[in-house]
Amino acid sequence: MKILRLLPFVLCFSSFLLTAEENRLSLSLTTDVAYHTKTYYEAGDSHFAAPDEPFRIIKARTTFAASYKIPVLTGESPLFAGNNITFTGKVMLTPVSLAPTLSVTFSPAAFFDLEAGIDSGSGWNIGMLKGLRQYNPAKKTYDDITSFSAWYIQPYVKATIKFDVGALWPGDWHHIVGLASFGVGYQSLVGASQKIWEFQTYAGHADGMVYAQYYVIGYQMPIKLSMIAMTFDFTGHFFASDYGEFADSFCGDFMTKEIGPMFEITLNKKNILYAGIFFLARRSFKEEHTEEEVEPSLTYSGTEWLWDYSAVRWVHYFN
Question: What confidence tens digit (pLDDT) does each residue in 241-298 have?
Fold first, then answer.
């Protein structure tokens, strides 16, 4: 599962059917850049809010990943020829955080993956960029946490189902692809003294059981523009009570939604670019406000849709 939302279009269709010629060891470097517009908070029931200013912030991260694949329970059928267990380690670096991740993925068939892992991370604060803070209910704002004195931890399990029409109807132009993923985890900020906290500049999080649903429907093509797709990302808490005294007023079990088109450009075998535009559904409140920091003390009233950001991802494979 993603530690936090930045770019939700991690796809695994570059090689839908695994082959015996694949490298067992894979090394990659992924760089993400997201350009956020500024949309003022509007009080009231559910609505769409248009951007008020063309620029709010640019967010970036880079992630080094190493994976080792071991073939298991393979068969002669294309659906089972690539069965494997993959061990993956990642280290993500942002301007305000360092986040290592470990995971194990079992692929018993070309269309199904079962993954278990643990996300972790800590951070620091630089001026207006806040990587590690906790909510102070008395002040109705967030207080900085000393660098590396608290750690984000999330063990998780995730199941993913994939399909490719081209596997049943061979042809270069027949690749209508899809993905459905559902993950469950328990997130916490170990070392924090408050229930509600902020990590990697994303506020409003709390210790508790969380879920993440991710869906993709796309079309692959044998050209440089190798895929166009729509992505749907839904995340939230199972229990509103994770937010303590703010469970009802803040709507602790609110589902955050992120939807947008994504484009994949294959430069060559070792370099792939992704680009997308993403719309976000966040909480709307009865009270007028200008800063996200005060939201836990406000009263939830509906959903606010907005154009959140445009993003580019570059993935480089070393082997």
Answer: 999 999 999 999 999 999 999 999 999 999 999 999 999 999 999 999 999 999 999 9
At 157-202, the pLDDT tens digits run: 999 999 999 988 999 999 999 999 999 999 999 999 999 999 999 9
Q: Give the whole-angstrom CA distance, residue 178 versus residue 214.
A: 11
Judge contact between 309 and 289, C-beta under 8 A.
no
Distance of CA 175 to the CA centre of its chain: 25
Q: Which residue has the tokens 């082959």?
A: 19
Tokens at 22, concatenated: 């694949």
| Cβ-contact 117, 153 below 8 angstroms | no
Note the maximum CA span of the chain: 64
Residue entry with tokens 């690539």: 82
Is residue 216 a contact partner of residue 9, using CB atoms and an 8 Å limit?
A: yes
Distances (CA, A) of 140 to 77, 143, 199, 303: 60, 10, 18, 22
